[in-house]
Amino acid sequence: MLLVLIALFAVAGIAPFLFRMLGRSTFYVLAAVPALAFVWLLANFSSFIEADQGAASGSPNAPPVQMFNWLPSLGVHLDFRMDALAAVLCLLVLGVGALVLFYCARYFKNEDPHTGAFGAQLLAFAASMFGLVTADDMILMFIFWELTTILSFLLIGFNRTRMGARRSALTALMVTTFGGLTMLAGLIMLGTAAGTYRISEVLALAPELTTMGTYIDVAIVLMLVGAISKSALIPFHFWLPGAMAAPTPVSAYLHAAAMVKAGIYLIARFAPGFHETAFWQPVLLWLGLATMLIGGWRALKQNDLKLVLAYGTVSQLGFLVLILGIGTPNAAKAGLAMMLAHGFFKATLFLIVGIIDHKSGTRDIRQLSALRSSSPVLFVVAVIAAASMAGVPPLFGFVAKEAVYESLLEHASSNGATGMVLLLGVMLGSAMTFAYAARFLWGGFARKAGMEPTPFPTVPWLFLAPLLVLTLATVVFAWVPGSLEAAITPYVGLFPAAAHPIHLAIWHGFTPALGLSLVSMSVGVLIFVARKRISKVQAMVPAYFDAERDYKLIITGVDNLAIWLTGRTQRGSLSFYLVVILMTALVLPTVVSLWLQTPAPGNLIAFDTPAQLVIGCIMILGALGALQANRRFLAVLMVSVSGYGMAAIFALQGAPDLAVTQLLVETIVLVAFVLALRALPVELWSKNPTGHRLVRALIGIGFGASMIYIAATSMASRIADPISLAYPELAYTGGAGKNIVNVTLVDMRAWDTFGEITVLAAAATGVASLIFVRGRGDKTLNAALVPRGSVDHGSEAIGGASHSRSGMAVAKNFAISSKDSWLVAGHTLAPERRSITFEVVTRLLFHTILLASVYLLLAGHNTPGGGFAGGLLAGLALAIRYLAGGRVELAEAIPVSPGTLMGSGLALAAASAVAPLFFGAQIFTSAAIEFSWPLFGDHKFVTSTIFDIGVYLVVVGLVIDVLRSLGSEIDERSEGRSPTDTHDLVSDAETGVGR
Question: Per residue, what are the HEC states of 603-669?
Answer without folding.
Answer: CCCCCCCHHHHHHHHHHHHHHHHHHHCCEHHHHHHHHHHHHHHHHHHHHHCCCHHHHHHHHHHHHHH
